Amino acid sequence: MELLEQLEQYRPFNEQEARDREELLRRMCSGEDLYTRDNSAAHFTASAWVVSPGRDQVLMAYHNLYDSWAWLGGHADGERDLLSVALREVREESGLVQLRPVFRDIYSLEILTVNGHEKHGRYVSSHLHLNLTYLLEADPEAPLCCKPDENSRVGWFSPEAAIAASSEPWFRQRIYSKLNAKLPGW
Asked: What is the arithmetic mean of pLDDT over 61-67?
C-alpha cells in the first residue's frame, strides 16, 4: 500500500495526530520532495517503538545529539517504504538483528521540530521531521551495541521508565506517553 493511502486510512489517536495527519496529507499532495533531505524545510523520518513480546519493556538509545534517551529511527533518505527505514535504523542504532513488526501499518505519526545544530562539522538549519512510527518487537535478551557516531548507550526500560529517562519534556508528555497509552491495544 502506498504511503498516501496509508495516511488516508490512518485513524488518529488524539488531536495532535489528527492535526499532524492533515498537514502530512497536505504536504504529500503538494508535490514537494519529502523523501530526501534535499528538502531542508521538512522531510520524512521513521521511528520505532521497540517493545518486548510481553509489552513490559521498551528499547531506548542515548542519542548524543539530543543528550537524551530516545526512541530509535532516522531519515528516509530516498526510501519510500518507511517501515523498512524504521527496521534499518533500529538495526543500525541498536545492533539488534531479529526484529518483528507487530503489524505493518503506521503505529503513530507526528511532526517533530528539529532545532538548528552542527552535524559532522556542518550547520543544519532548523526544520521539520515528518515522522511515522512503527511498533516493533524484539527479544530483550538479544545482544545490543551502540552506534558511536549517534548514540552512546542502548538499553531496555519499563514503559514508564522510558518516559522518565528522556530529558526532553515535549517528547515525554506528547510522544512517549502517547506511544505507551496505545500499547494495550496491540
From this structure: 91
